[in-house]
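> forwarded from #structure-qc
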């Protein structure tokens, strides 16, 4: 992924699609020295390569030692050396790969990558909210107890009193050819194989033409518990749309967890599905907004005991 490294310094940063450099609070790369202008220069990806534009800075921007003309875009090659206002602010483009989807902490500059199609914010270890790519290609922000909201490149949002910016180098939705008939989405079977002592739970997803082995994971028991709840409700005659919902606190008590630990397991389940390239990653567990309830989002279930 594209990266800028400080020469003779310790700082580095991953490049956002439009990476503003300067002293201002809005800058992606903030430089505190007084010879750097508030909005000194812009590094951006034009769809094919990186380029830099001086924003009318007082002390100028240099590319490989040459002073840039203000307002003109100059192409950047890997290894390019950039000087912002003074030789003490010398940086190099160490990686010129295209930008990737990520969430950036505006206070900490933490960089959370979305290579698996899912990002836990403020971290994967403690995901208070989730940024994920839905099956239609749209990136969305899901906060607990709130409907998922679509995201656009540059969207700023707050989590636990901290500000984050969503960075997306490509359109957030897929374009569908109008003349092409869309096939209905296939509903796979979620298979559970449970050992007699329930110490091991193996999961697989069975499609019409293939089976995806998801292996044995600690979070599989949470999936199994939700599957049993949905099947029990179905056998009791509850309407399918109302089957399987359970309060997060009740589920946490049943599993010997806290409610935040349940949220962490839900994120890890979705991430595991996303890493396997499965479209069901976002929908494998559903949340009922403003109720604190969740359920297994897949309705075709099979449980086999050893």
């Amino acid at each position: 992924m594209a990266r800028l490294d400080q020469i003779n310094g310790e700082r580095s940063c991953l490049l956002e699609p439009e990476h503003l450099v300067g002293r201002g609070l809005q800058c992606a790369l903030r430089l505190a020295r007084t010879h750097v202008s508030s909005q000194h220069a812009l590094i951006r990806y034009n769809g094919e390569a990186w380029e830099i534009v001086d924003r009318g800075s007082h002390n100028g921007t240099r590319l490989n030692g040459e002073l840039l003309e203000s307002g003109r875009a100059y192409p950047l090659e890997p290894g390019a050396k950039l000087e912002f206002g003074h030789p003490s602010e010398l940086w190099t483009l160490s990686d010129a790969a295209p930008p990737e989807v990520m969430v950036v902490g505006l206070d900490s500059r933490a960089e959370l990558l979305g290579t698996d199609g899912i990002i836990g914010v403020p971290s994967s270890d403690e995901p208070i909210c989730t940024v994920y790519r839905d099956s239609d290609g749209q990136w969305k922000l899901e906060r607990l107890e709130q409907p998922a909201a679509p995201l656009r490149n540059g969207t700023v949002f707050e989590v636990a009193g901290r500000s984050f910016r969503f960075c997306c180098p490509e359109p957030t939705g897929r374009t569908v050819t109008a003349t092409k008939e869309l096939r209905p989405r296939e509903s796979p079977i979620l298979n559970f194989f449970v050992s007699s002592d329930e110490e091991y739970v193996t999961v697989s997803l069975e499609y019409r033409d293939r089976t995806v082995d998801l292996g044995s994971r600690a979070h599989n028991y949470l999936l199994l518990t939700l599957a049993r709840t949905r099947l029990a409700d179905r056998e009791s005659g509850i309407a399918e749309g109302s089957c399987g919902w359970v309060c997060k606190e009740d589920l946490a008590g049943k599993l010997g967890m806290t409610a935040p630990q349940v949220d962490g397991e839900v994120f890890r389940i979705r991430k595991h599905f996303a890493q396997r390239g499965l479209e069901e990653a976002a929908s494998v567990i559903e949340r009922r907004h403003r109720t604190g309830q969740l359920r297994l989002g897949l309705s075709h279930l099979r449980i086999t005991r050893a």
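QC bot note: The first strand starts at residue 3 and ends at 6. Helices lie at 220-235, 248-255, 259-275.
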